[in-house]
Amino acid sequence: MSFDDDAVRVRPGWLLQEMAHAGRENLDTGHVARYDAKENAAGDAEVALLESLGLGRGATVVDLGAGMGQFAIRVSGACGRVVAVDVSPVMLRTLEANAAAAGSGNVEIVHAGFLTYEHSGPPADFVYSRYALHHLPDFWKAVALTRIRQMLRPGGMLRLWDVVYNFAPYEAVERIEAWCATGGTGITDGWSRAELEEHVRDEGSTFTWLLEPMIRESGFEILQSTYSDDGIFAKYVVRRN
Ligand SMILES: C[S@@+](CC[C@H](N)C(=O)[O-])C[C@H]1O[C@@H](n2cnc3c(N)ncnc32)[C@H](O)[C@@H]1O
Fold it and tell me: For the CA atoms of 7, 99, 90, 39, what is the dihedral angle to 10 degrees?
C-alpha cells in the first residue's frame, strides 16, 4: 500500500499542514527503525485499562498517531475493529509490516492526521492517542479534540497520554532543564538530551492548565488525570458528553 498520496488531496489553504508538524524524527527511517527499542507503549496495561472502561470484542477503537502500531496491534486482539491513523508514511509502512507479522487482520491503516481523518462505519467506542497530540499547536489541539468527539459514540471514551507540562510558568526553566538532563548521549538507548531539547523547542507540548479546559470545551468530561512527578507527562481518561 502507498502512503504517499497526501499531496493530491484538496484541502483548504488555512488548514495546518500536519506533515510539516509531524516531528522530524517521525519521518526519518533511522529513527523509526529504533523506535520500538526506545519506547514501550505499555500495551498490556493500556488494554487492561480500556477493558475496565468497557472495551469488548465488538468495540471499535481508533488510534490517532498510531506510530508503528505497538498499541493498535495489542488492542486488536481485544476488540472488533482497530483503525490506526498516522501522518507519517514511514511509520505506517512499519505498522503495516508489524500488523501482518502479528496476524492482526482487523487493523485498518489510514494515512491521515488528527485534522483530516474521516471516520466511517459505526462510531468509535474508544479513541486512543499516545505521544501524538503535542505535535499540533494549541488552536489545532482544540480543533482535533472536537473532531475526536465527533467520531465517538455518546459516552465513548478518549484515552490521551502525552507530554503535557504540569507546572507553573515560573517553574518552566528549572523543570525543562531537569527533564533534558535525564537524556542520554546516544540515540540508540532511549532518548538523548538532544532529542528532548528538540521536543521542547520544536514541538507543541503545552501546559495541563491550558489543555484541560480545551478538553472540556470540546465536549468531554475528564474522568481521570494522572501526572508524572517531574511534571512532564500526563494521562487522561475522558468521556464524551
Ligand atoms: C512519538 S510517536 C508515538 C507513536 C505511538 N502512539 C506510541 O505511543 O508509541 C508520535 C506519532 O504521531 C504521529 N503524528 C504526528 N503528527 C500527527 C498528526 N497531526 N496526526 C496524526 N499523527 C501524527 C507521528 O508520525 C508519530 O507516528
Answer: 130
The model carries a pTM of 0.94
Quickly name the fold that domain 6-240 has.
Rossmann fold (3.40.50)
The pLDDT of 2-6, averaged and rounded, is 65
The domain segmentation of the chain, as residue ranges, is 6-240
Q: Who wins on pLDDT, 32 or 52?
A: 52
Look at ligand 1, atom 23, and give the residue with the nearest C-alpha: 65
Pocket of ligand 1 (CB under 6 A): 18, 21-23, 26, 39, 41, 64-67, 70, 86-88, 91, 113-114, 130-132, 135-136
| Cα–Cα distance for residue pair 152/127, rounded to 1 Å | 7
Atom of ligand 1 nearest to the CA of 116: 20
pLDDT at 25: 80
Task: State the pLDDT confidence band at 58, using cuts at 50, 70 and 90.
Answer: very high
User: What is the rounded CA–CA span in Å between residue 34 and residue 132?
Assistant: 18
